[in-house]
């Protein structure tokens, strides 16, 4: 529980009430949260901690910068221990831990796509690709599959990672096609790897 909370805290998205909003925010960006959950998130989002003197664009840029710096810090020591741990946790079978690690990989991959250090990007993708593929193909919850598709889509924006992604394109095409009905991220990733729109 503490590990899950710690990983979600790194995402840096909180409400005034202290609720960690990272996973909900990512799923909403993917168009997954609709109905009561979405309304709840909108209400919480109205209470997200924001400096009222800072324009929203500046706040979003500050969050983006936080995630870029954090990603570089987590990966910058030249060791794969953080990535190996996340990858191992993705394969743990503990559904809550898998969900939180997929959420972590979603914001990490988003931040890495905006960094200019190809070494970090490719080493992160190489360490995570097999577990992301497994989650997309066999995830026990639809949220797991969506978070995996978000991460793969983020990595697809990095040319070196896209080349590696194309090596598993045939294997992930079917799960992406079925997931495309649920979220635009899967639809967009399917179009990238197959060259055709749904």
Automatic annotation (TrEMBL):
<protein>
    <recommendedName>
        <fullName>Putative E3 ubiquitin-protein ligase LIN ARM-like domain-containing protein</fullName>
    </recommendedName>
</protein>
<feature type="domain" description="Putative E3 ubiquitin-protein ligase LIN ARM-like">
    <location>
        <begin position="2"/>
        <end position="194"/>
    </location>
</feature>
<dbReference type="Pfam" id="PF23628">
    <property type="entry name" value="ARM_LIN_C"/>
</dbReference>
<dbReference type="InterPro" id="IPR055566">
    <property type="entry name" value="ARM_LIN"/>
</dbReference>
């Amino acid at each position: 529980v503490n590990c899950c909370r710690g990983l979600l805290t790194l995402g840096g998205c909180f409400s005034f009430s202290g609720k960690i909003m990272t996973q909900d925010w990512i799923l909403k960006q993917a168009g997954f949260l609709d109905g009561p959950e979405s309304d709840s998130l909108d209400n919480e989002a109205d209470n997200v901690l924001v400096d009222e003197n800072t324009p929203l664009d500046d706040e979003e840029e500050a969050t983006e910068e936080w995630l870029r710096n954090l990603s570089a810090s987590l990966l910058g020591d030249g060791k794969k221990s953080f990535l190996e741990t996340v990858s191992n946790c993705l394969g743990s079978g503990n559904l809550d831990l898998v969900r939180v690690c997929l959420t972590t990989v979603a914001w990490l991959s988003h931040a890495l796509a905006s960094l200019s250090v190809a070494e970090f990007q490719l080493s992160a993708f190489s360490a995570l690709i097999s577990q992301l593929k497994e989650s997309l193909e066999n995830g026990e919850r639809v949220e797991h599959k969506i978070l995996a598709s978000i991460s793969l889509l983020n990595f697809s924006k990095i040319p070196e990672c896209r080349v590696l992604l194309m090596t598993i394109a045939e294997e992930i095409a079917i799960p992406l096609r079925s997931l495309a009905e649920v979220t635009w991220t899967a639809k967009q990733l399917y179009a990238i790897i197959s060259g055709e729109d749904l």
